[in-house]
Amino acid sequence: MKLECKVSQLKPIYGKIITTADIIQTDSGLIITAAVGGAEVLKEVQTVIAVAENVVDIKPGDKVFIDVSKYARLKNNSMANKIKEEYVLLIPQLFCEDGQVLMLESRDVNLVITTNV
After folding, report:
1. pLDDT digit string (tens) for 78-90?
2. How far apart are CA 108 and CA 45, in angstroms?
3. Helix-then-strand count for the chain, H and E
């Protein structure tokens, strides 16, 4: 969804979180794409940008491990694809004037990665 606003203006509600939409790149700068359809591959670890007021234990700046399994859908509903198990991820993404972000549920976060141990 294309929005006419800046990422910093987004304020999620009802258990939602906004994270970066970082993609996997090689050291040479090449973007890794899925074999099916050539879509960019999102990293499983993203940085939180904003959280709804009712979200606990997650705050902006946290690195989080995302469970994307609930967003996986069969690419086509044919028997051949069911055998090969070709999936596409339908993760809610927002395209703002200054970047692309993910809009997730707080329950999609499996882990918060802490740096102060």
Report:
1. 555 556 666 667 7
2. 12
3. 1, 8
59-96 b/e with 16+ CB inside 10 Å = b? eeebebebeeeebeeeeeeeeeeeeeebbeeebeebeb
Give the tokens for residue 28.
């040479």
DSSP string, 38-76: TPBPBPSEEEEEEE-TT--S--TT-EEEE--GGGEEESS
Instruction: Say what the pTM is.
Output: 0.76
Task: List % helix, strand, coil for the chain (3-state, nearest 5).
Answer: 15, 40, 50
**CA neighbor of 42 nearest in space, from 101, 94, 95:** 101
- Domains in the chain (CATH in brackets) are 7-110 (2.30.33.40)
Place of tokens 């946290």: 62
43, amino acid identity: K
